[in-house]
Write a structure and sequence with these properties.
heterodimer; A: Porin; 16-stranded antiparallel barrel; 7 helices
């Protein structure tokens, strides 16, 4: 199974929804190479052993793509031109994407095909309390060292104003390739009301993967997650990976006066056979009835070294629960608001971000199917974060997340004695990106992010202690992750 | 899978055919407008190129190539950007952007405009700084290899003067000496005044 955006959703959503349907939405695709190593050895292995894993692609838990070396080859610029610390974008990174991945200045795509390789792993994963059972036969209940994923990219200009970011991911478990984050653009520039206007047509497979701010789910925190757990994470809204990969969207966008962004995209669910052909598990996606509109507006002035953004986004989908036609449709509305401030001065980059997605669920079908106990629910997902990056090399991130919503016995009861989805916590990340200004040697475009993150859960499913009635505490799920993330 | 591949192939073919029909670039200005804005009016810390003096642009591109211009942003961005820019391409870029109509950034401190105008027109005699107007022209329009200053962004003008004062790009005489003689307040005033200076506008 391939859950494309699971790792792109906020920390608590990393492994999917509630326990009831978590067997596949959660951390199902897990294998490890080495299990139960002492922490220090594991961290050292994570930092130093990365190059040895190319042929060992075992675990696939897709993560967001990042600073593509193929973009660096095409533009002639180091990763630092577009990323403070990948995958965080600078103003120029946002413009590069809005311009359709087509800007050049380096090698042409005939001199260097815009292909790139990403390896995430090995990574060491420690939970405060051991899992109840090993996630897979070859992993332990704690302190696993796992290989994350291997991805190939086409990233850059196709021809003239047409460019693409296409990710293919190798699933060692299923021994197959599948399509991952995809974003194909055609852009034009013109004048409107006396100012520059970039207009684009965009085709993608994951709502918000086309967005250029790191406040929306596809490119938001956490950038990298544990693959073997934790056992419990808060539920997520529809936009936080609910459709990632299983849909096809086509839309138009406009970027006016380097300040105002507007986009309208419609999404359809891929047919089950197409999803299977693309390596996806149809049972992991609700089916959109017709076309689901997604919209995005943002006011984003940049003044010298200061960039601001305040925006709104949302999606409305009528969903047919999987394999359950004849019961009507659920109507899901997500409305998000986000804001970002970025200050880049010399070697210093500071960023503050906040986002909130409010979801309204009309469970016409699910209520009839008794998947939910209420005909209507709501769910609210909030995240705020700050980060500081020095010289595009040393990155510090702190984030707070909070999920709250309606109590629903059928939906959350298996995880919650209060039938509650409520959860909150913190995420901290420290990373070292040694090659943001270019890697010494014959391949200067490569980059790496080596770091540690710690996710602390204050509450989960409405409680701090014994929230599920089975003796699990929120803090049991606190996660320490040491990771390496390599781009070639 | 076959149908998907076929659809993707069709999309690619159609897009590739449509691309050349709509292509109009004779020099790859997209490589510049990516950061400097679609019509070269500047964006973030990338300065406005539109309406800049052609010879100045040409010379600066070569200065980036030879690393004569060595301030941090030049080193971080432009040194990489010009690696594949030969003389002909540099002429093409310079000619293209010089032909675009400039727009004033209007982003300085209006309270400092009068002070900035005074420095621009009369210099700072007590510091032995000549009037900027002598070289850069009455509207800050520049001439030949001397750059247009009128309408450039406050941030860019201020930073360039500060960088000269800090010792970057020492070959750009007399600017390092001028910048070292200006106070922080003088620099802010000059940058403010020039950011509001429209090309050809009545002063």
């Amino acid at each position: 199974m391939l859950e494309l955006a699971s790792a792109e959703a906020p920390a608590g959503v990393a492994c999917g929804l509630d326990e009831a349907d978590s067997s596949e939405r959660k951390c199902a695709v897990i294998e490890s190479v080495v299990a139960s190593r002492p922490a220090l050895i594991a961290i050292a292995a994570a930092a130093l052993g990365a190059l040895a894993i190319v042929g060992l692609g075992i675990l696939i838990k897709p993560q967001p793509a990042s600073a593509l070396p193929s973009f660096a080859m095409q533009t002639g610029q180091p990763c630092a031109a577009c990323h403070t610390a990948f995958p965080e974008l600078t103003p120029f990174g946002r413009l590069f994407k809005l311009s359709g991945y087509t800007a050049g200045g380096g090698l042409t795509n005939t001199q260097a095909p815009p292909l790139a390789l990403m390896i995430q792993g090995p990574q060491f994963e420690h939970f405060q309390k051991n899992l109840d059972a090993p996630p897979t036969p070859s992993t332990s209940t704690n302190d696993n060292v796992v290989l994350s994923q291997l991805s190939l990219f086409y990233g850059g200009q196709i021809y003239d104003n047409l460019g693409a970011f296409i990710q293919g991911t190798y699933d060692g478990v299923g021994n197959s390739w599948s399509i991952d984050n995809t974003d194909i653009r055609y852009t034009r520039t013109m004048k409107a009301f006396g100012s520059d206007l970039i207009v684009g047509v965009d085709v993608n497979n994951n709502p918000t993967v086309q967005d250029v701010w790191n406040t929306t789910p596809a490119w938001g925190l956490p950038y990298i997650s544990a693959a073997t757990g934790p056992a419990f994470t808060p539920p997520g809204t529809m936009l936080e990976g609910g459709f990632a990969g299983g849909v096809a969207g086509a839309g138009v966008y406009a970027w006016w006066n380097n300040m105002v962004y507007a986009e309208l995209t419609g999404y359809r669910t891929l047919s089950s056979s197409t999803q299977q052909a693309l390596g996806l598990d149809p049972t992991s996606f609700p089916s959109i009835d017709g076309i689901a509109p997604y919209w995005r507006v943002a006011f984003a002035p940049t003044i010298g070294e200061h960039s601001f953004m305040i925006g709104a986004f949302g999606m409305y989908a009528t969903e047919v629960p999987y394999a359950s036609p004849g019961f009507g449709v659920d109507r899901i509305l997500d409305i998000g608001f986000d804001a970002q401030y970025q200050f880049i001065h010399g070697k210093h980059a500071f960023e503050a971000k906040v986002s909130n997605i409010y979801e309204t669920d009309q469970y016409n079908a699910s209520y009839a199917l008794q998947t939910t106990s209420n005909p209507t629910d709501n769910l609210d997902s909030f995240r705020a974060s700050v980060d500081y990056v020095y010289d595009n090399t040393y990155s510090l991130t702190a984030s707070y997340f909070d999920v709250s919503g309606s109590a629903d016995a059928n939906l959350y009861g298996p995880n919650s004695i209060a039938n509650s989805p409520n959860g909150n916590g913190f995420l901290f990340d420290v990373a070292y990106l040694p090659f943001s200004h270019g890697m010494p040697g014959p391949f200067p475009w490569a980059n790496a992010r080596i770091g540690v993150s710690y996710t602390k859960y204050l509450t989960l499913y409405g409680g701090t202690a014994n929230f599920d009635g089975a003796g699990h505490n929120a803090s049991d799920n606190n996660t320490f992750l040491a990771y390496s993330w390599l781009m070639f | 899978m076959k149908r998907i591949v076929t659809k993707l192939a069709l999309l690619t073919i159609v897009s590739c055919v449509a691309g050349p029909l709509l292509a109009s670039e004779t020099v790859p200005v997209k490589n510049c407008t990516w950061c400097h804005g679609p019509s070269g009016q500047g964006y973030s810390n990338a300065p406005r190129l539109a309406g800049q003096q052609e010879l100045y642009l040409d010379a600066q591109l070569m200065n980036f190539r030879t690393h004569v211009r060595d301030n941090p942003y030049s080193r971080d961005f432009m040194w990489n950007a010009v690696v594949h820019v030969d003389e002909d391409m540099a002429h093409g870029f310079a000619s293209y952007f010089a032909s675009l109509p400039p727009e004033a950034a209007n982003d300085g401190n209006r309270d400092l405009v009068a002070s900035g105008r005074n420095i621009f027109e009369f210099g700072v005699p007590e510091a032995n700084i000549a009037a900027c107007i002598v070289c850069h022209g009455p509207n800050g329009e520049g001439v030949r290899g001397i750059p247009r200053l009128g309408g450039l962004s406050y941030f860019y003008l201020k930073r360039r003067l500060e960088e000269w004062a800090e010792g970057y790009s020492p070959a750009a005489e007399p600017m390092p000496k001028v910048a070292r003689s200006l106070s922080g307040r003088d620099i802010e005033a000059l940058a403010s005044y020039l950011s509001f200076l429209e090309y050809g506008a009545e002063r």
